[in-house]
Amino acid sequence: MDYRNTSASQWYESMASDMSGFPFSFRYAGIEYSGFGYLEALGSERRETGNRIENEFTYGLNDLRVNVLFSHYPNFGVSEWTVRFTNVSAGDSGLLEDAWTTLELEGDSPVLRGILGDHVNQYRPYVKDLQEKPVSFISDSGRPTHVNFPYFDVSHGSGGTMLAIGWSGTWTAEFSYSNGKTKCSARSVNGMRTVLRAGESIRTALFVYAPYQVRDEWYATNFWRAWFVECNLPRNDASGEKVQPFSACCIANDTGLPNSDGSISERHTTWRPSLEKMIEVGAKVDVRWFDAGWYVAPDGSSPESDWWGTVGTWVLDPVKWPGKTFLESTEFARENGMRTLMWFEPERVTDVENLVANFDYKPEWAIHRPGVHSISNNIGIPECYEWTVSRICKLLKENKVEIYREDNNSDPGSLWRYLDSQESGIRTGITECKFVEAHYRMWDEIIDCTLSFGGTGFVDSCASGGGRNDLESLRRGIPLLRSDSDRSSTSLRLSMTTSFNRWIPFCGANTKEKAYELDPTGRTDVYTWRASYLPALNVDSQFTQDPDQDFDMLRFGLNEWKQVRPFLLKDFHVLTDWHDKNNKTGFTAYCFSDPVQRRGVLFLFRMEDCEQNEIQLKLPFDADKITLKDQDSGHVTEVAGKETTSFILDEKRQAKLLWINW
Prior knowledge:
alpha+beta, Beta-galactosidase, Chain A, domain 5, TIM Barrel, Immunoglobulin-like, 10-stranded antiparallel β-sheet, 8-stranded antiparallel β-sheet, 37 strands, globular
């Protein structure tokens, strides 16, 4: 579909030619500045690369330099910007605060749509009539997509606007309507109010403004998904191609040893039987997943079960992995067409005293607030950053680990604010600014590292599941697990797919992890497999330790997923109402389709407690006739494209997959 938007591109060019009305404001030294018309213009540069236009502007304001990177994607009419502030004086700057992006959207009947975040809200969708009352969201934890979610769809007039805040820290968004205009305001670094030291520099979030021309939520959804895939997905490898759907498997539960979580039970003696059996039975995945628990503890011991309380060294446990035995495992995987993914958690440390004594760690790098159990590793300090990143990259390179997986199992926001309070002068928000920017830089450096020896151009973005899915992060990473909780039941998995996948096309989930998850029998059946077909397919099976392992079913799931894989990053339509995890009484139906090839795949689920065996659906394709082929029976039917079609599922907890041509 052609999503070019002439008026949106004209807006960008008009704004770039006169930045006095730019939708950004801030207060400096007690004076409020709106746009950049009152600042001294010091220079500008325009660059055009592929599908992106960039204009970079530099302004002066006494001892402050303000740099604006203002970009546009002409194939979609999407614009975005970040603003950087730098103190160029020899002393402290004036007080910098109240940095907001504010847009006014014209058009009547404004409606705000979106989803809430992971954890307590589990990607619950919302619809807000902005004529009734203003709406606001705030994220203060430091993990930006837990609780709330910084992506928004405002329909207004005959079209609408998608908006996003790309910042892996704290943020606020506010929406209100008055006199035919919807005011949308967004900021990063909540409550920022700081002076900058000599030479110090901080930046704002990435703000995205994406107008669309047809007032239809599925037009908006697929406009956004198409832009996300074409202009945001990170590179698969050094070829520069975008990351493509892949399968992964963690073999930690296939060791025959106690496994509390992660890969803590894995040893140099356990991996080979699992991988060899996987290859032997024809169930080879693309990625071998090596999770938490592989490192030596700060006191030098070998963790038996406590992967969470022993992080920080980023040194392979020599008891579990003596010599070059881990490299041998990654080499074996590579020789057999598999890449290796390895878990880290660099934003958190434990047992600081022993890290200092045994690993050259500095106590001032740890942010530890009295009464708070978690301790942050302050990568915003350059020396701490270098210590952390050098250890990670050394391990990745020495063991030729192609994919870096990052987790964060703590909320750093309160620790950032605590450290701000310990500084002299007014410095609210400065720790977060330094930390978040260092984090993006860390991922860039790690990606350069993995690319240097044939690894991937992306990382796995995780923070207790879905805590770090902001747009800026997802230009470097993909959420291999969109949530820690959607492995619990298929009803929740389907619920999350119908909400989350509207916004984040590339994501994944585990087929299961422990007995009785997803499937009450403890097995992965056709229903579970089909509910799990996402761009990242995370297979969770035992190859040597389960005498009842159904290898036929495992091959079935992997092979069928490979068939649907080409469509999973294309257009997406949900054909039934959203339901929460506790509602199993209805149907769930959605489809992925390629509008160019005019082909796709339809998924139908009659849920566990659904008493009806029939559902009426109108398929979302502009065609007189649509052909449907049932994957299981091979039966082909032709239906009228503009009429409602009846589908029969004979049994409860049944899933149908139908191929679509129109």
